[in-house]
Amino acid sequence: MTDFRSMMKKCSLLLGFLCLVLVSVDAEGLTSPRDTQQLEPEEFRLRTNLNDQAISYYRDGKYAEAEPLFKRSITIREKVLGQFHPQLAQSLNYLAGLYQAQGKYAEAEPLLRQVVGIREKTLGPEHPLVGESLNSLAVLYRSQGRYDEAEPLYKRALEVLGEALGTRHTRVSAVLNNLANLYYTQGKFVEAEPLHKRALRIDETLLGAEHPIIANSLNNLAALYQAQGKHAEAEPLHERSLAIREKTLGPEHPDVAQSLNNLANLYHSQGKYLEAEPLHERSLAIREKTLGPEHPDVAQSLYNLARLYQAQGKHVEAERMYKQSLEIWEKSLGPNHPYVAKGLENYARLLRKLNREEEAAKFQARANAILIKYVNENLTE
Q1: Among positive and negative, which fits the CA dihedral 107, 30, 12, 174?
Q2: What percent of the chain has pLDDT over 70?
């Protein structure tokens, strides 16, 4: 078993990665196109309705409602199509994505492994969907801190996708971004930067300078610079990412809220609290309107506002925001998610400033228990 201090360091790095809010650029996700349909009309309609409703719940952060629908879709596909069919793999992939969003990595891993196995068997080991499945499994391993296992999967995914689609393809650039994010999480900034830049060049060549995918790449590169304290390099990238998203997606899109959140975090790290506050407030308003008041992203905005208020000495406002964010995260992600631990830690820090030591100790102890549980389940070797 890995040394405990080493594991906790990994966990700390992962939490820092989560809080920087890198864009999810998995090569395949819950919005991937459907495969060619081969079901009877009635079964097809039922399965389609189940998946569509489940995806809608997922996007709204209603994970408890989405899970049984994804599971029922899997049951139908397995019954009608058998255990080795690409459409079954698609449904398994959806459910795995749902588990990953909740930090349920132990439940997601066997599903993603099954997806890889089905696609290799039915489509061949060099098929693009196999490359995307390898990428998805690598994303999971990165989330667990299993960096040595993630890296070869990313590299294999790049080989498969590059051979099948060509090296200058948006799917290839997505995996390049993910591999760069892995290096970022490990603190390997020198290795990460050229990969982010290469992905950005590919996307700009293929999609033009103002495509939403370009905004994703700019966001990731900005986060890399921000982590190194290169604020002057990060700021124009965050601003350009925001401008692209506002122009192409509209001023009230959730991705615009993410860009506002990230730029606000940059200002916060520079002590520019007055510039940060209206951006966080606008991000929160967009998320509440478009995602609903109980979505995990709403909790993220509340948490970041709480941190900002705490830094400004606005303790009453900060405490209210911490409580709201924790309530949403616990309800949507479960009581043992790393986000909950991070929120509890910062809330405990605020309480200590207010000389409420007994309360602070209680919340800190709970945060520690969550992190130890997370380490034992996800970061042991």
Answers
A1: positive
A2: 86
- pLDDT of 268: 96
Give the model's pLDDT for residue 279.
98
State how many domains the chain has. Answer: 2
Q: What is the pLDDT of residues 168-212, one digit of tens each?
A: 999 999 999 999 999 999 999 999 999 999 999 999 999 999 999
Residue 361 lies in a domain: no
Residue that terminates a domain, selected from 104, 137, 165 = 165
Residue 49 has pLDDT above 90, yes or no: no
What count of other Cβ atoms lies within 10 Å of the Cβ of residue 97?
A: 26
Helices within 144-230 (DSSP H only): 147-165, 170-185, 189-207, 212-227
Q: Could you write out the DSSP letters of every residue in 105-162?
A: HHHHHHHHHHHHHHHHHHH-TTSHHHHHHHHHHHHHHHHTT-HHHHHHHHHHHHHHHH
pLDDT at residue 147 greater than cutoff 60: yes
- For residue 218, the domain's CATH number is 1.25.40
What integer pLDDT is reported at residue 95 of this predicted model? Answer: 95
**Domain, as residue range, for 217:** 185-250
Q: What is the CA radius of gyration of the chain?
A: 21
Residues 238 and 137 in one domain: no
Neighbours of 49 (CB within 10 A): 12
- Distance between CA atoms of residues 349 and 310, nearest Å: 10
Q: Please indicate, yes or no, if residue 132 is contained in any of the structural domains.
A: yes
pLDDT per position as a tens digit, 276-326? 999 999 999 999 999 889 898 999 999 999 999 999 999 999 999 999 999
150 and 48 housed in the same domain: yes
**3-state secondary structure string across 321-379:** HHHHHHHHHHHHHCCCCHHHHHHHHHHHHHHHHCCCHHHHHHHHHHHHHHHHHHHHHHH
Does 129 map to a domain?
yes
130 and 219 assigned to the same domain:
no
Q: Are residues 161 and 189 in the same domain?
A: no
| Whether residue 222 sits in one domain with residue 127 | no
Q: CATH number for the domain including 145? A: 1.25.40.10
Task: Indicate the DSSP class of residue 187.
Answer: T
Q: Nearest-CA neighbor of 377 among 180, 91, 102?
A: 102
Question: How far is residue 143 from each of residues 64, 215, 257, 329, measured CA to CA in Å?
Answer: 21, 23, 23, 18
Residue 337 lies in a domain: no
